[in-house]
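Bench notes, bay 3.
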Amino acid sequence: MALIPHECYKHERKYTRNVRKPSHNIDAANKVYVDENIITKVSKSGDRMSGDLNMDDNRITGLSTSLPTSSSDAVSWLQAVNLVRESEQETTSKVNRTGDVMTGDPESSIGDNDISVRLYGSYTW
């Protein structure tokens, strides 16, 4: 009996044996081929991989907008922008260690009132 492509064949509880390695999208695959190649996929529910992941101009979505819990966690664009903005705001309210001008009455304390310094006037650091 000649097999016709794209046709269904009823096996009636029989096995198809000696199936070659598939070379076309419509080819059948034997168990050995499937077992050897199925492990090349990363599980959607969590897995590990080695090597580079080429995203082919696609985006990674669904990242948390909260702070990462480890130094190897990815951050979302929103989180990165917020971290830069917070850093910029901190920078504008701080005095550089050298070459900066400070006005007002700065106060400093260390520990539980162990050391306290109060300066008056304008100072260049």
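Next record in the batch:
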Amino acid sequence: MSTTPHIDALLADDARPRPAHAEYPGDHTLPLRPRSASPPPPNPDAPSGLARAPSAPDRVPRLIRLSDVAPVDVSWLWQDKIPLGRITVLAGKPGDGKSITAAEITARVTCGRDWPDGSYCPSGSVLLLSAEDALDDTIRPRLDAARADVSRVVALQGVRHLSDDGGNKVDRVITLADLDIIEESLKEMPDCKLVIVDPIGSYLGGGTDSHRDNEVRALLAPLGQLASKYNVAVICVCHTRKGGATTHADDAILGSVAFSGIARSVLHVMNDPDDPEKRRKLLLPGKCNIGPRSPGWTFTVEGGPPHVVWGERVDQTADDAVQAAAKPGPPPAAKREAAEWLKAALQGGPRLAKDVQDEAKAKADIAPATLRRAQKDLGVEVDRPKNPGPWWWRLPGQKWPQVADAQEANAHPSQGREPEHLEHLPETVGGVDDSQGADAPDAQDSSPLSPVEHVPHKPKRKRKAAAK
């Protein structure tokens, strides 16, 4: 029997909303230490400005004993990337492809089409709040290009209400303060799996300072509770600053830290710094505190209307990319030696990409970014003979292995030992370890297979001291 009948009685009628996927049967039975029969006498030394508790309590604590909470697994829209019932931030600089990526995600959800890594994608409707793109000439063509079922995409355009005199209907823009309107929309879409707010800054309202943590949290926290209640994923598209010395990608999000703080997962869209044409882009994970670290993906934006074409998996985080961009590139010797090693490793035929990457790091101490540059400079081709299945690398002109021969093709003669012409090299390629810039983009040479002419540095002239 409970030892706190007074609290039991107060909380028995607790009707607070609970997520559809969680039940807390014991939140009204709280056998805590009994309250003293009479309240303690007032402290005469207490500051006079302190508020006094009312004699009859009009506020009570809402407590849940953790032994009464049944643990459940996190539900995912995209495994380890976009959780259901939570807020995810999709961040990037203007023009890097955030909205096009959001359109690709929308299309897959409406059709239940598997994600590029082969994982399952739940099928459902999508509620779209878009403030920067027109529905007719931008959003609809993008969704068509991404092969979306547009009958399952609903755009929330605003709020309609009667004017003060009650005679006319007036439309106004919607903000996150209109949470009841968003909830009414979700009630009209019982199969909704995803809500997209693009960009989040346009829906804060004119009275909200996006740089004040408490004001941003006051709007995002109820949105997160709404996501949990209806078990839908919410993607908030955020801009990042164009420059800065930060080494943590999440810190580059414009505005308050609350944007990444409230989100349970953060994804970053950025141009690949190793692609001089700026066509290849990266979708890389940032923060995710409810799941394991997930790999990133390369993609390009093709066609008109533009749509996403997925590339290959990359074992890189957004922080890795930001930190690499802040370092000087590897010396030409390291790039040449990485290219020679990779050419020898693939000389016998196609190999699993993961095996080549692991061997390059473990056997030759080649950093992942340096290996990727060597891959691109050699024109190494990437493909997946069976989908879903592992990715393979091959030199130009080589034949892809048959699925049945995949195991045999991977048994490469050089696997497990150094190529003979590189056995004399030290363990650290080019004498540079990862912490000294081997992962950073190279700004010195245009070809890793040819020497580079170094231009001597011309020191700056000293300024003359101003006359006193």
